């Protein structure tokens, strides 16, 4: 389970971010991919598409698969993979399409290293330049991971790409919001059930001579779903991002991204699944934010709420190797006793 949002700021910038949740612990690292680095896509039949990084990018990898599942490139394009269970359907790999094949984890890495705008991505996907194959990835279990993808560029344009029925379906994403299953178009239709929500408080009413007043702030949002299911998180993400007061700058917008995404933190134990006698609990392992104007990638973890940043402009795009940095860290607690003694 993951939740993604986008905000627009008063200075014309856009910023976006997402949470990362899963039922097992995902070993994540921050990775920097330089220009010129060579990749080969993975398919069930063996090697797939060969490509060379045109753009440098920074983001998150999972387990031992050094491919960006979420990231930002030097042109300001951002991509994120989100879990899409029960709905992701990948095409069959054949000898004819194998050389265009990418694994579900290769696809976001390919987008980040090859393209600068949403329009470029749309064009290549519509022209079937690649095939996302049902390849098994390290750490994700015995089945191909079911993903769908969100793409943003620095103008604020956004699309969602979903593998449905063996084809890649593109949806415009004007709100910049994404969660998980079902399909994106279903989530957008479901929003119509909540058009009465309002950030303004409902005024008092007269009933049988009695004045009934609100019990407190926020009654205009009565009916906002509060559970952690993907449809409910999509509604909350859409409402919170649409009603957020615009920040002055991208820097302030990043702070607001983290404040909003704090509302989607899933504590350990509140969502559980039982499989083969083992209980798995989803929780928010990582939260990231992206600033495509200043080319900065931010993150914090479950164990450490300190916000950390990587500045893509200060990294050497001509570097010959991929750099890795573990996201593991421990929360620093500052003792202020002496200040109040």
Write down the overall mean pLDDT.
96
Can you tell me the residue ranges where pLDDT is under 50 for at least 5 consecutive residues?
Answer: none
Fraction in helix: 10-25%
Largest sheet report: 8 strands, antiparallel
Which range does the strand content fall in?
Answer: 25-35%
Strand order of the largest sheet: 13-12-11-8-7-6-3-20
State the distance separating the first and last CA atoms.
45 Å
Q: Assembly state here?
A: single chain
Judging by the overall fold, what is the CATH architecture? 4-Layer Sandwich
- The count of DSSP E runs of length 2 or more, i.e. the number of strands, is 20
Tertiary shape: globular
Task: Summarize the structure in words.
The chain has 341 residues and is an alpha+beta fold. It has 6 helices and 20 strands. The chain has a single domain (4-183, 245-331), classed as Penicillin V Acylase, Chain A. The chain has helices spanning 106-114, 118-126, 184-190, 230-243, 250-261, 337-340, and strands at 4-8, 14-22, 28-33, 38-43, 46-52, 57-62, 65-73, 78-83, 101-102, 131-132, 147-152, 158-164, 167-172, 205-207, 210-212, 271-275, 278-291, 296-301, 308-311, 323-326. An 8-stranded antiparallel β-sheet has the order 13-12-11-8-7-6-3-20, with helices on one face. The termini are far apart.
